[in-house]
Amino acid sequence: MENKKRYVPSRFNAISNTDDNGVVLFNSYTGAITYFSDQEKLAVMTSLKRTGTDILGNEIQKDLYNNGFLVSSVLMKREGHNFFISRCTEQISCILC
């Protein structure tokens, strides 16, 4: 079994589009609320895909992680399936290959 650290979206995230085409994120677990402009929206939405990301490669991803919108997980590969185990919630999700 292979283990690999990932950053995945928190299950407590709520996303709302704004009138100026930006996005507001709310995390009901941490209470964090933040706004991203139209120019930042693509980077935010890409970072919040369920598959996650291997690294925190830019300031937006670092901000998302620091405010609880992205959480650290371990990706475990076993028998053709990927299992994400969230470190903060200990939730296990299986994603079929």
List the helices and strands and how they pair.
Layout: E1 2-9, E2 13-17, E3 23-27, E4 33-36, H1 38-47, H2 59-66, E5 70-78, E6 81-86, E7 92-96
Antiparallel strand pairs: 1-5, 2-3, 3-4, 5-6, 6-7
Walk me through what this model shows.
The chain has two helices and seven strands, in the order ββββααβββ. With 97 residues, the protein is an alpha+beta fold. It has a four-stranded antiparallel β-sheet. It has a three-stranded antiparallel β-sheet with strand order 2-3-4. The two termini are 15 Å apart.
Write a concise keyword list for the protein shown above:
97 residues, alpha+beta, 3-stranded antiparallel beta sheet, 2 helices, 7 strands, 19% helix, globular
- The general outline is globular
Biggest beta sheet summary? 4 strands, antiparallel
User: Please, what is the average pLDDT?
Assistant: 80
> Any low-confidence stretches, pLDDT <50, length ≥5?
88-97
Strand order of the largest sheet: 1-5-6-7
Structural class: alpha+beta
Strand tally = 7
Write down the secondary-structure element order.
EEEEHHEEE
